[in-house]
Amino acid sequence: MGLAGLGALSMAGGGLLTACGDAKPSGGPGTTTQDQLQKLLPAYAPNELVKADIPSVTGANGFFSNPAFLKYPASPVTTTSGVPGKGGTYTTMTPLWGAIPSASGNAYYAAVNKAIGATLKLQPADGNNYDKVLPTLFAGDKLPDWVQVPSWNMGNLGFADAVNKFADLGPYLSGDAIKAYPNLAAIPTSAWQCCIWNGKLFGLPVYYSGATIAGTIFHRKDILAKEGINPDDIKTPDDLAELGKQLTSAAAGRWAFDDVFDATGQIFKFPVDPNRWVIDESGKIIHRYETPGILAALEWYQAQAKAGHVHPDALADKNQEAKQRFWSGKVAITGDGPGAWKGDDAKSGKAANPSYERQAFKLLSTDGKPQIWMNPSAGMYSFLNAKLSADQIKECLSIANYLAAPYGSAEYLTVNFGVEGTDYTMVDGNPVLTERGSKEVATTYQFLITPISPTTVIAGQTQVVKDYAAWEADMVKYAAKPAFYGMNVTEPAQYANINQPMVDLIKDIRYGRKPVSAYADGLKTWKAQGGEQLRAFYEDIRSKYGTGQ
């Protein structure tokens, strides 16, 4: 969900570029100029009705931490007036990663539809096969009234043209027009930027954030404490390597590291995404594979592997078992996404070991200058069918305004938890699904639009929220925009598979199966098989649209 893009340009060779709206003027299909962008963006009006227990903190380059809540407000405020719908009926389709609940007799669906004053006929589809469902709907012109299209499913849709099947929302939301929908006006500008194609505002953003990262390095604070290690003293890769010696104990069945290679990208300053490019100090566009940092990271990680500091199963690429290794204490340090640091993780970890405590290291660096590249604010969007009338579009936007009510509101409880006593109960001040609710409540309405993602208590683990919020507030101080930030580029189809040999080679090197010296030949082959052509492709993008930084 961390991908995002805005604007679209059909490129020679069949590729698709979605750009951040800061592009230079161009006459190509799908482009959005800087002047157009300023006219299209909705006015921003933060919602002041709900106060977070731990407020958002502004970091560098416009990024900010998410608001955090320790308990759901005892008296939730109402952020909308009246019933938003006018009795209309609309078909929807959204992806769902999980069991699809039955619509028959579903108290949750009935409660939300009653609250919005309309009938949304929900049609969740298997998220893992969503990319196969969408092309058929587009080709057959059988799109539902309201549909979710993730950015990573747009490449095979010819989206620069396909997006024209959706309603232009600019006349209803651009500028001050959005003030008719206060909860939509509270959506940050960076998220709305991700919803613009062809000089028009088409999308509604879903699951956006002020600071989205690929991952970071976690440690078992309880284990480090037993060894007398202060995690705040770990500031460089050499410090981290020293922990390899201190924390690995064959007798105790414990290794220092799981597979932390990707997470070391923030230390050695190379992108995690295989499709990411970097502007080097000379101004040249170089690929992730060409950065000095990735070579240094391979040398560092292979040294840990050869020294026996990496768990054997991690070296065997058994990533599905990584969380269990961390929970049980078989490894003390692991790499993972920020979503791993939640209350349910603490619950699972404490079940394996009562002293379990996950924490993240403060950002490490090689030069005393920490930096972490951000992902775009939003990467999922919903769209309204262009066949809807103006009155129907207004009704759907009023419904969207209800669905986007912030965490802490009465509406949020209904949209996310259903009916109290039936679908959920309040436990220690927070909503918890009942047995019936766990079967009926699924992520469906939320894939149409959401408020900004908050950090909340899960499984009663209040301290986890405090710790994560404090870490994130520190992390955003070092937030930076990578090259082509907010420009989700789908490369020409003929280069779709050139990265796989490098992906495999990097695994072989970091796991110690091949020497670091093998990297040079692999890189040479990658360049010859399309890497240099791709560089020219990105140079053309930079010349026309900039780098998004």
From TrEMBL:
It comes from the Bacteria. It comes from Paractinoplanes bogorensis. Belongs to the bacterial solute-binding protein 1 family. InterPro entries: Bact_solute-bd_prot1, Rhodanese-like_dom. Residues 510-535 form the Rhodanese domain. The lineage of its organism: Bacteria, Bacillati, Actinomycetota, Actinomycetes, Micromonosporales. This is Rhodanese domain-containing protein.
